[in-house]
Amino acid sequence: xxxxxxxxxxxxxxxxxxxxxxxxxxxxxxxxxxxxxxxxxxxxxxxxxxxxxxxxxxxxxxxxxxxxxxxxxxxxxxxxxxxxxxxxxxxxxxxxxxxxxxxxxxxxxxxxxxxxxxxxxxxxxxxxxxxxxxxxxxxxxxxxxxxxxxxxxxxxxxxxxxxxxxxxxxxxxxxxxxxxxxxxxxxxxxxxxxxxxxxxxxxxxxxxxxxxxxxxxxxxxxxxxxxxxxxxxxxxxxxxxxxxxxxxxxxxxxxxxxxxxxxxxxxxxxxxxxxxxxxxxxxxxxxxxxxxxxxxxxxxxxxxxxxxxxxxxxxxxxxxxxxxxxxxxxxxxxxxxxxxxxxxxxxxxxxxxxxx
Length: 356
Hints:
This protein is mainly beta. It has one helix spanning 2-27; strands at residues 29-34, 46-52, 55-64, 73-81, 86-90, 103-107, 110-114, 117-119, 125-127, 131-135, 140-141, 156-160, 164-168, 171-172, 175-176, 180-184, 189-192, 208-212, 215-219, 234-239, 247-252, 264-268, 271-275, 301-305, 308-312, 325-326, 331-335, 348-354.
Protein backbone atom coordinates (compact mmCIF):
# COMPACT_ATOMS: atom_id res chain seq x y z
CA UNK A 1 0.00 0.00 0.00
CA UNK A 2 2.81 2.34 0.98
CA UNK A 3 4.65 1.52 -2.28
CA UNK A 4 1.59 2.45 -4.36
CA UNK A 5 1.30 5.76 -2.49
CA UNK A 6 4.97 6.55 -3.14
CA UNK A 7 4.58 5.74 -6.84
CA UNK A 8 1.51 8.00 -7.10
CA UNK A 9 3.33 10.84 -5.35
CA UNK A 10 6.30 10.47 -7.68
CA UNK A 11 4.03 10.49 -10.72
CA UNK A 12 2.29 13.61 -9.40
CA UNK A 13 5.67 15.28 -8.82
CA UNK A 14 6.88 14.56 -12.35
CA UNK A 15 3.54 15.74 -13.76
CA UNK A 16 3.86 19.07 -11.91
CA UNK A 17 7.45 19.52 -13.12
CA UNK A 18 6.42 18.72 -16.69
CA UNK A 19 3.59 21.25 -16.52
CA UNK A 20 5.92 23.90 -15.14
CA UNK A 21 8.43 23.25 -17.92
CA UNK A 22 5.67 23.40 -20.51
CA UNK A 23 4.43 26.68 -19.07
CA UNK A 24 7.98 28.10 -19.19
CA UNK A 25 8.25 27.01 -22.81
CA UNK A 26 4.95 28.64 -23.73
CA UNK A 27 5.73 31.89 -21.91
CA UNK A 28 9.03 32.34 -23.73
CA UNK A 29 7.85 34.82 -26.31
CA UNK A 30 7.83 38.31 -27.79
CA UNK A 31 5.92 40.86 -25.77
CA UNK A 32 4.59 43.49 -28.17
CA UNK A 33 3.89 47.13 -27.44
CA UNK A 34 2.18 49.34 -30.01
CA UNK A 35 3.85 52.75 -29.99
CA UNK A 36 2.80 55.96 -31.76
CA UNK A 37 1.86 55.25 -35.36
CA UNK A 38 4.18 56.42 -38.12
CA UNK A 39 3.11 59.58 -39.99
CA UNK A 40 2.07 57.44 -42.95
CA UNK A 41 1.57 53.81 -43.87
CA UNK A 42 4.61 52.27 -45.54
CA UNK A 43 5.91 48.88 -46.60
CA UNK A 44 9.00 47.38 -48.23
CA UNK A 45 10.94 50.12 -46.41
CA UNK A 46 14.49 50.02 -45.07
CA UNK A 47 14.61 50.10 -41.26
CA UNK A 48 17.42 50.73 -38.78
CA UNK A 49 18.08 51.76 -35.24
CA UNK A 50 20.27 54.70 -34.21
CA UNK A 51 21.50 56.29 -30.99
CA UNK A 52 22.07 59.94 -30.06
CA UNK A 53 23.61 60.58 -26.63
CA UNK A 54 22.73 57.02 -25.74
CA UNK A 55 19.03 57.48 -26.53
CA UNK A 56 17.47 55.05 -29.03
CA UNK A 57 15.79 56.05 -32.29
CA UNK A 58 14.08 54.09 -35.07
CA UNK A 59 14.60 55.10 -38.71
CA UNK A 60 12.61 54.21 -41.82
CA UNK A 61 13.77 55.04 -45.33
CA UNK A 62 11.71 55.13 -48.57
CA UNK A 63 9.22 52.36 -49.45
CA UNK A 64 5.71 51.93 -50.84
CA UNK A 65 2.65 53.83 -49.61
CA UNK A 66 -0.92 52.62 -49.04
CA UNK A 67 -1.85 52.82 -52.75
CA UNK A 68 0.34 49.78 -53.48
CA UNK A 69 0.86 51.26 -56.96
CA UNK A 70 4.21 51.90 -58.67
CA UNK A 71 3.46 55.64 -58.35
CA UNK A 72 3.30 55.20 -54.57
CA UNK A 73 6.96 54.18 -54.34
CA UNK A 74 8.76 57.09 -52.70
CA UNK A 75 11.89 58.38 -50.93
CA UNK A 76 10.31 59.81 -47.76
CA UNK A 77 12.15 59.04 -44.55
CA UNK A 78 11.34 59.41 -40.85
CA UNK A 79 12.90 59.15 -37.42
CA UNK A 80 11.18 58.08 -34.20
CA UNK A 81 12.43 59.05 -30.73
CA UNK A 82 11.67 56.27 -28.25
CA UNK A 83 12.33 58.61 -25.30
CA UNK A 84 9.78 61.26 -26.31
CA UNK A 85 7.39 59.13 -28.41
CA UNK A 86 7.75 61.58 -31.31
CA UNK A 87 8.11 61.13 -35.06
CA UNK A 88 10.10 63.54 -37.21
CA UNK A 89 10.37 63.65 -40.97
CA UNK A 90 14.00 63.78 -42.06
CA UNK A 91 15.54 64.52 -45.44
CA UNK A 92 14.32 62.26 -48.24
CA UNK A 93 16.57 59.45 -49.32
CA UNK A 94 18.90 61.14 -51.85
CA UNK A 95 18.00 59.29 -55.03
CA UNK A 96 16.33 60.35 -58.27
CA UNK A 97 13.31 58.07 -58.06
CA UNK A 98 11.32 56.26 -55.39
CA UNK A 99 12.82 52.99 -54.23
CA UNK A 100 11.74 49.75 -52.53
CA UNK A 101 13.51 46.55 -51.40
CA UNK A 102 16.63 48.30 -50.15
CA UNK A 103 18.10 47.43 -46.74
CA UNK A 104 19.60 49.56 -43.98
CA UNK A 105 22.51 48.63 -41.72
CA UNK A 106 24.09 50.65 -38.93
CA UNK A 107 27.81 50.64 -38.29
CA UNK A 108 28.70 52.82 -35.31
CA UNK A 109 27.02 56.23 -35.84
CA UNK A 110 26.17 55.92 -39.54
CA UNK A 111 23.32 54.12 -41.30
CA UNK A 112 23.99 52.66 -44.74
CA UNK A 113 20.99 52.21 -47.03
CA UNK A 114 22.02 49.80 -49.78
CA UNK A 115 20.47 48.76 -53.08
CA UNK A 116 16.75 48.49 -53.76
CA UNK A 117 14.90 48.90 -57.03
CA UNK A 118 12.90 51.44 -59.02
CA UNK A 119 9.62 50.65 -60.79
CA UNK A 120 8.73 52.64 -63.92
CA UNK A 121 5.40 53.52 -65.52
CA UNK A 122 5.67 50.62 -67.95
CA UNK A 123 6.25 48.38 -64.89
CA UNK A 124 9.85 47.68 -65.84
CA UNK A 125 12.29 47.58 -62.94
CA UNK A 126 15.90 48.55 -62.35
CA UNK A 127 18.13 47.48 -59.46
CA UNK A 128 20.08 50.20 -57.68
CA UNK A 129 23.86 50.44 -57.29
CA UNK A 130 23.67 53.18 -54.67
CA UNK A 131 24.72 53.20 -51.04
CA UNK A 132 23.32 56.15 -49.13
CA UNK A 133 25.04 57.17 -45.90
CA UNK A 134 23.09 58.84 -43.09
CA UNK A 135 24.97 60.43 -40.20
CA UNK A 136 22.89 59.84 -37.09
CA UNK A 137 24.58 62.51 -34.95
CA UNK A 138 24.69 65.13 -37.70
CA UNK A 139 21.12 64.30 -38.74
CA UNK A 140 21.91 64.46 -42.43
CA UNK A 141 22.84 62.38 -45.44
CA UNK A 142 26.50 62.34 -46.35
CA UNK A 143 27.75 61.97 -49.90
CA UNK A 144 26.83 58.56 -51.31
CA UNK A 145 29.37 55.82 -50.78
CA UNK A 146 31.17 53.96 -53.53
CA UNK A 147 28.70 52.38 -55.94
CA UNK A 148 27.83 48.73 -55.44
CA UNK A 149 29.74 46.65 -58.03
CA UNK A 150 26.67 44.51 -58.80
CA UNK A 151 23.40 46.49 -58.51
CA UNK A 152 21.17 44.66 -56.07
CA UNK A 153 17.73 44.50 -54.42
CA UNK A 154 15.84 42.16 -52.10
CA UNK A 155 19.22 41.02 -50.81
CA UNK A 156 20.30 39.43 -47.54
CA UNK A 157 22.19 42.09 -45.58
CA UNK A 158 23.87 41.98 -42.17
CA UNK A 159 26.74 43.54 -40.18
CA UNK A 160 29.80 41.64 -38.97
CA UNK A 161 31.55 42.83 -35.80
CA UNK A 162 30.29 46.40 -36.20
CA UNK A 163 32.78 46.82 -39.03
CA UNK A 164 31.75 45.19 -42.34
CA UNK A 165 28.40 44.97 -44.14
CA UNK A 166 27.73 41.71 -46.00
CA UNK A 167 25.37 41.87 -48.97
CA UNK A 168 24.53 38.29 -49.94
CA UNK A 169 22.75 37.12 -53.12
CA UNK A 170 19.56 39.01 -54.13
CA UNK A 171 18.06 40.16 -57.42
CA UNK A 172 20.01 42.17 -59.98
CA UNK A 173 17.87 43.57 -62.84
CA UNK A 174 16.93 40.27 -64.46
CA UNK A 175 17.86 37.40 -62.17
CA UNK A 176 19.07 36.13 -58.82
CA UNK A 177 22.83 36.43 -58.43
CA UNK A 178 25.33 34.48 -56.31
CA UNK A 179 27.47 37.49 -55.44
CA UNK A 180 28.66 38.24 -51.93
CA UNK A 181 29.59 41.93 -51.78
CA UNK A 182 31.30 43.26 -48.67
CA UNK A 183 31.32 46.96 -47.82
CA UNK A 184 33.96 48.50 -45.57
CA UNK A 185 32.54 51.78 -44.19
CA UNK A 186 35.92 52.94 -42.88
CA UNK A 187 37.58 52.66 -46.30
CA UNK A 188 34.40 53.33 -48.32
CA UNK A 189 35.28 50.34 -50.46
CA UNK A 190 33.79 47.08 -51.68
CA UNK A 191 35.46 43.69 -51.73
CA UNK A 192 34.35 40.36 -53.19
CA UNK A 193 33.45 37.59 -50.79
CA UNK A 194 33.17 33.89 -51.53
CA UNK A 195 30.07 33.65 -53.71
CA UNK A 196 27.24 31.39 -52.71
CA UNK A 197 27.07 28.30 -54.95
CA UNK A 198 25.69 29.00 -58.43
CA UNK A 199 22.39 27.19 -57.97
CA UNK A 200 18.82 27.76 -56.80
CA UNK A 201 19.56 26.27 -53.39
CA UNK A 202 21.50 29.40 -52.43
CA UNK A 203 20.59 32.14 -54.92
CA UNK A 204 17.51 34.00 -53.74
CA UNK A 205 15.55 37.22 -53.63
CA UNK A 206 13.35 38.09 -50.68
CA UNK A 207 15.40 35.95 -48.30
CA UNK A 208 16.62 37.52 -45.06
CA UNK A 209 19.32 36.83 -42.55
CA UNK A 210 21.57 37.89 -39.73
CA UNK A 211 25.13 37.38 -38.52
CA UNK A 212 25.68 35.76 -35.14
CA UNK A 213 29.31 35.62 -34.09
CA UNK A 214 31.12 34.73 -37.29
CA UNK A 215 28.26 32.88 -38.99
CA UNK A 216 25.82 34.23 -41.56
CA UNK A 217 22.35 32.69 -41.33
CA UNK A 218 19.80 33.27 -44.08
CA UNK A 219 16.52 31.55 -44.79
CA UNK A 220 13.72 31.40 -47.35
CA UNK A 221 13.22 33.72 -50.30
CA UNK A 222 12.30 33.02 -53.91
CA UNK A 223 14.22 31.16 -56.58
CA UNK A 224 14.13 31.54 -60.35
CA UNK A 225 11.46 29.58 -62.17
CA UNK A 226 7.75 29.65 -62.93
CA UNK A 227 5.95 31.83 -60.37
CA UNK A 228 9.26 32.23 -58.48
CA UNK A 229 9.05 29.19 -56.18
CA UNK A 230 9.33 29.89 -52.47
CA UNK A 231 12.29 28.38 -50.61
CA UNK A 232 12.58 26.28 -47.45
CA UNK A 233 16.36 26.23 -47.04
CA UNK A 234 18.52 27.44 -44.17
CA UNK A 235 21.95 28.53 -45.40
CA UNK A 236 24.99 29.16 -43.24
CA UNK A 237 28.18 31.00 -44.11
CA UNK A 238 31.17 30.68 -41.78
CA UNK A 239 33.33 33.80 -42.05
CA UNK A 240 37.09 33.33 -41.82
CA UNK A 241 38.24 35.72 -39.10
CA UNK A 242 41.72 36.00 -40.63
CA UNK A 243 40.26 36.76 -44.09
CA UNK A 244 36.64 38.01 -43.84
CA UNK A 245 36.20 37.66 -47.62
CA UNK A 246 36.58 33.89 -47.27
CA UNK A 247 33.28 32.21 -46.41
CA UNK A 248 32.47 28.52 -46.09
CA UNK A 249 28.91 27.90 -47.26
CA UNK A 250 26.58 25.07 -46.24
CA UNK A 251 22.84 24.47 -46.20
CA UNK A 252 20.18 22.27 -44.66
CA UNK A 253 16.45 21.65 -45.05
CA UNK A 254 15.24 21.03 -41.51
CA UNK A 255 11.54 20.91 -42.34
CA UNK A 256 10.43 20.87 -45.97
CA UNK A 257 7.01 22.28 -45.00
CA UNK A 258 8.42 25.51 -43.52
CA UNK A 259 8.93 28.24 -46.12
CA UNK A 260 9.26 32.01 -45.92
CA UNK A 261 9.45 35.17 -48.03
CA UNK A 262 10.26 38.79 -47.10
CA UNK A 263 10.55 38.13 -43.39
CA UNK A 264 12.32 40.42 -40.95
CA UNK A 265 15.49 38.82 -39.58
CA UNK A 266 16.99 39.45 -36.16
CA UNK A 267 18.66 37.55 -33.34
CA UNK A 268 18.36 37.10 -29.59
CA UNK A 269 21.55 35.84 -28.03
CA UNK A 270 22.78 33.08 -30.34
CA UNK A 271 19.35 32.37 -31.83
CA UNK A 272 18.35 33.76 -35.25
CA UNK A 273 14.69 34.74 -35.67
CA UNK A 274 12.63 35.42 -38.80
CA UNK A 275 9.52 37.44 -38.00
CA UNK A 276 6.43 37.79 -40.16
CA UNK A 277 6.73 37.35 -43.89
CA UNK A 278 4.56 35.12 -46.05
CA UNK A 279 4.40 31.56 -47.32
CA UNK A 280 3.66 32.62 -50.92
CA UNK A 281 5.91 34.75 -53.12
CA UNK A 282 4.41 37.95 -54.51
CA UNK A 283 5.14 41.14 -56.40
CA UNK A 284 5.44 44.51 -54.68
CA UNK A 285 1.66 45.14 -54.96
CA UNK A 286 1.32 42.40 -52.99
CA UNK A 287 -0.32 40.00 -55.45
CA UNK A 288 0.95 36.41 -55.63
CA UNK A 289 3.18 35.48 -58.56
CA UNK A 290 1.17 32.27 -58.95
CA UNK A 291 -2.02 34.18 -59.75
CA UNK A 292 -3.85 33.24 -56.56
CA UNK A 293 -4.50 36.88 -55.64
CA UNK A 294 -3.62 38.93 -52.56
CA UNK A 295 -1.22 37.29 -50.11
CA UNK A 296 -1.84 36.82 -46.38
CA UNK A 297 0.90 37.22 -43.72
CA UNK A 298 2.25 34.07 -42.10
CA UNK A 299 1.85 35.65 -38.63
CA UNK A 300 4.67 33.80 -36.97
CA UNK A 301 8.09 33.85 -35.37
CA UNK A 302 10.39 31.31 -36.97
CA UNK A 303 13.62 30.59 -35.13
CA UNK A 304 16.57 28.21 -35.29
CA UNK A 305 17.35 26.65 -31.94
CA UNK A 306 18.97 23.39 -30.84
CA UNK A 307 19.38 22.31 -34.45
CA UNK A 308 15.67 22.72 -35.21
CA UNK A 309 13.45 25.26 -36.97
CA UNK A 310 10.70 26.17 -34.54
CA UNK A 311 7.56 28.21 -35.13
CA UNK A 312 5.51 30.35 -32.77
CA UNK A 313 2.14 31.69 -33.93
CA UNK A 314 1.35 33.48 -30.65
CA UNK A 315 1.90 36.97 -32.06
CA UNK A 316 0.89 38.47 -35.38
CA UNK A 317 3.65 40.03 -37.44
CA UNK A 318 3.29 41.81 -40.81
CA UNK A 319 4.83 40.63 -44.05
CA UNK A 320 6.88 42.56 -46.61
CA UNK A 321 9.58 43.42 -44.09
CA UNK A 322 13.03 44.60 -45.18
CA UNK A 323 14.55 44.99 -41.75
CA UNK A 324 14.17 45.19 -38.00
CA UNK A 325 15.63 47.90 -35.76
CA UNK A 326 17.98 46.35 -33.17
CA UNK A 327 17.54 48.44 -30.00
CA UNK A 328 19.47 45.86 -27.98
CA UNK A 329 19.82 42.08 -27.86
CA UNK A 330 16.28 41.53 -26.57
CA UNK A 331 14.45 44.66 -27.77
CA UNK A 332 13.55 45.27 -31.43
CA UNK A 333 11.25 47.50 -33.47
CA UNK A 334 9.23 47.06 -36.66
CA UNK A 335 7.76 49.90 -38.74
CA UNK A 336 5.08 49.32 -41.36
CA UNK A 337 4.75 46.23 -43.52
CA UNK A 338 1.58 44.59 -44.82
CA UNK A 339 -1.08 43.19 -42.50
CA UNK A 340 -4.20 41.10 -43.11
CA UNK A 341 -6.28 41.90 -46.20
CA UNK A 342 -3.22 43.41 -47.92
CA UNK A 343 -3.43 46.54 -45.77
CA UNK A 344 -0.27 48.64 -45.67
CA UNK A 345 0.51 49.40 -42.03
CA UNK A 346 1.55 52.58 -40.22
CA UNK A 347 2.13 50.69 -36.96
CA UNK A 348 5.31 50.88 -34.94
CA UNK A 349 5.81 47.81 -32.78
CA UNK A 350 8.31 47.52 -29.95
CA UNK A 351 9.19 43.86 -29.40
CA UNK A 352 10.72 42.57 -26.18
CA UNK A 353 11.91 39.00 -25.81
CA UNK A 354 11.13 37.62 -22.41
CA UNK A 355 11.07 34.34 -20.50
CA UNK A 356 8.61 35.65 -17.90
